Amino acid sequence: MKQLTSYEGLHCANCGASMQGEFCHECGQSIHSVLQPMHHMLEETVETVLHIDGRIVHTLPPLLLKPGFLTMEYFSGRRVRYIAPFRLMFVLCLLSFFVFHLAVDHQLTAKASASNHPLVHVNSGAVEDAATPADVRKALQDELNGLQSARDTGVLPQVALDQTHIAARELRQKANERLIALGAAPMPAASLAAPPAAATVNVTGDAKPRGALRKATEGESKPVQIAWLPDVVNARLTALGQQMHRNWRAVKHGDPVASAEAKQRMINGVFGVLPPIMFVMIPMFAVLLKLFYVFRRRLYMEHLIVALHSHAFLFLWLLLCTLLAAFANWLEPRALWTTYPLNWLERILVLWAPIYLLLMQKRVYRQGWPMTLLKFWFVGWCYFWLLAIALMVAAALGMAH
Question: Membrane spanning segments where (predicted)?
């Protein structure tokens, strides 16, 4: 009654109806003015863009710990205090893939840093300590012969072979510096370059000229011609195939910089198409639920809500797994005693995902355990193959990025 009297005499600025609360019961317009202080505008902007408000406190804990709770609350009409299913799934999807992308980039960067450590070590002391120009040339030749012997073994990886050429060039530069210091003429500039590798030797010992190897892989992929597809689709598929071929060639046969750039392009491409692909997978999962629970006489929208909450949980689960693994890797060299409990926590989190989905299916559809287990198995099996196909499509599109 107090609320009604506090709005007496007020009328909606939009339709003129008498106000009985903060929102007009005729047109829904708020009584509050849009001319607000700056901090209120910033709060509304953050809530609109990031979808973060007080409801997140009531949504995330039950989403993670109470299987099917949010879905049953939504079906019962108690929806105001929780984040809407699609908004919840959308934000968690983008956030989880973003964090997972950062983790993958970090791992690749760490691996690349480890691979940048020299695999080939040379002793330039003999060249730098030589007393005469003849001794400089002799010491240089001895070191170059050692590098050539290492190359002739045929067991060095390509990275090590590249490093032998770099080491040889550095030895020649130091030899020239020593020759100049001794007052002798330096070696010709042409000899400073690393000698071209005549062959690339594989683990079986069969030599194949590098030029022939590149020539065999430089050809573009064949044009795609599918009779029942329009020409524009065939042209698009052809362009994707050619870009995929170029990226793959850069990874396998390009220099280290081009290979790293191609890998990063493909990874960015994969993570760029994963969210749209998952948005397609959600209604397909709802179709599976509709087919397996056709006799429960539920609307497709009900199955879609189940699918949205299920995927929201999976994205939250992926986010927590990624953060926990990153935290464990960071903490391990600083506090080794935390490795054991964190490993157990990771195992529990991994096992919780299938248990959660099973309990959710049991709680929402209210069937006996034998039928629930049977349908859970078949739904999971079908969805596994759909997801595998979707991930292969994402990988193919990522390679063609």
Answer: 82-104, 273-293, 305-328, 348-365, 377-400
